Amino acid sequence: MEPLLGDNVFEEFRHCILPSLEKIDSHKNKSKLTFPEDVICPENVDRIRNFFQSADSLEKGKLIDIFDEVDQINRIDPKDPKTAEVAEVVEAFVGRILQRVGEMDPRFCSTLLRGGSFYDGVKIGGPDEFDFTAKIEKLCSVGGLEGRFSTCKKGFVYVVVKNSESMQDFKEFVIQAEEDDALEKGDQILSVRKIEKYFSELVDKALFSIDIPRALTPADEINGLSWHSVHCGPCATIHATYHSKSLEEMNISIDIAPTFDLRMPIFTSRVPALELKGLSCFPDAKNDLLSKLRDALNQSEITIMVVPFVFDKILELKGSERPSWFYEYSETWRVSFNSLEKFIFSQFAFDSVEKQLYRVLKILKAVFIQKTSEIESKAGTRDMKLEEPPSTKMSSVTIEPVGFVSGFSVASNFADEQNDESGDETDDEASSDSLSEPEQKYEVLYDRSSLSSNSDTDTDEQPATGNGSMVNSPPFDNVRMEAPDEEQNCTSQIPTENDSKMDSTQESLDSSPLIKTYFFKMIFFYMKFLLPDERVWTRENLPALVLFVLKTLFFIYSSKQRRFVNFWLQEMIELPVRPSVALEVLQSLENIVEELEATQQNWIASRNIDVKV
Length: 613
Prior knowledge:
Layout: H1 7-17, H2 45-57, H3 60-74, H4 81-104, E1 110-115, H5 117-120, E2 129-136, H6 137-141, E3 145-149, E4 156-161, E5 174-176, E6 188-190, H7 192-206, E7 216-218, E8 229-232, E9 235-242, E10 250-263, H8 272-275, H9 288-298, E11 303-308, E12 311-316, E13 325-330, E14 333-336, H10 338-346, H11 353-368, H12 373-379, H13 382-385, E15 398-405, E16 408-412, E17 439-445, H14 517-530, H15 542-558, H16 579-599
Parallel strand pairs: 2-10, 13-16
Antiparallel strand pairs: 1-2, 3-4, 4-14, 5-6, 7-9, 8-9, 9-10, 10-11, 11-14, 12-13, 15-17
């Protein structure tokens, strides 16, 4: 009898998320894995086979206890009285802020929208990260705005002002269009940079004129600092300390990002998922979730929500003797599917296998799929990175030296405004015009925290800042771990030779994730729509579901594409990951299977595997 998630099921699933132009004899290869040459390099085939065999050899029955224990310790129930108390205080706090923002500038009257993993019931660690969007009502209702999908990157839109008269109230936020095939000469667009900067300033001012809940104090109050918000990329981020009788005192962070609705773009191709067209990969068999989503979409006019995200890209400087690159930043807004994703998660109970699967995957990612010196050494990527362009990271805006190679510069489409704005992507050192002489190579660490404010985005779990070192991946069966939830951002540091695997005490991690939590979400959605058989979604099948996702990731990161088809847009919208990152992800996935294999023989259900944010 073929297993519920055997090779035949994986093969059909893979064709949907990583399609091939190569024709395969379906009868001859019905129950076998295939490795199309336009997808997989021949030299990677054996490694994929070995990983799949190792994963399939694990005893699924013993893994259930492991995953149950891990989930029970680390999950955060939003309905638990203790955590609900925190959320109630935070929501009241943010509500007062937004009310005051609207009083100071009526153009920015908004509706508070809850987002993020806490409200979806898939938060791990602690109730210490909250994500909100402020839906600016006037921008939702104003006429003359048109969304145009950027040709440079799918999933991002320019907000084109078609009627300048209707936008008189927002005229200081309108700028001349930059170069993009989606835009015409003379077009004017709504500046994401100006909107998010001004909104953050309003939030900061509001903090000085509202009643603060008594349970909250400034995070840095002990050092004499008062309330303030951090202009953290496209978000206004507030750090606070929460005081409670039922919970230990804890630091929390609150992200607030501006957003508004747009009617569907007229002059571009439609978004397949919003009309449930073009999703030919979905089976014709009865699929209750698909029917519910279709009904939800048919009940209202189709709109898209846009959120700030300063799109950046790396361009190689041609004609240079040595490899050189420069960055270019764009005034695009990210299309958010937050409401649809929240709708999907709302269909599952907190204790459902669906949400347990998602939480377990996040825990595995937080513990194992991180950048460490051990992973770098095993993957053999150190020298490879010297040949790759400098990268943007999800961290505070700063510049860090990482070696000596050719230089790079930073280009901007923001004209003269770049040097006048706080939170610039680079400092003066990084934007040097000199590319002729060897110089210190820098990485531009650019904050993309807007992603953590919307559940549809790159929500990466990163360990909380601790003792300044980064520990190696711990064995599964003898440690208590502190790891992050996806919204925290911190800069990794190279561990010293004295760093070792964590012992049974709670130590904090300081690392950087190798993949986005959002990738788990996309794969999860594909699985729910492509695998409607109820027998697949049972507690007993949880280990098989977890391993199915790990095998999917292994196949993706072994592929030539090093990316997969986005669920909502049905196109590959992400840039391919760097070769060094792909190798480190593969090594991390192999480490997970090795640890599970070693652990399942000695597992004691009462052991503590504690992942805390």
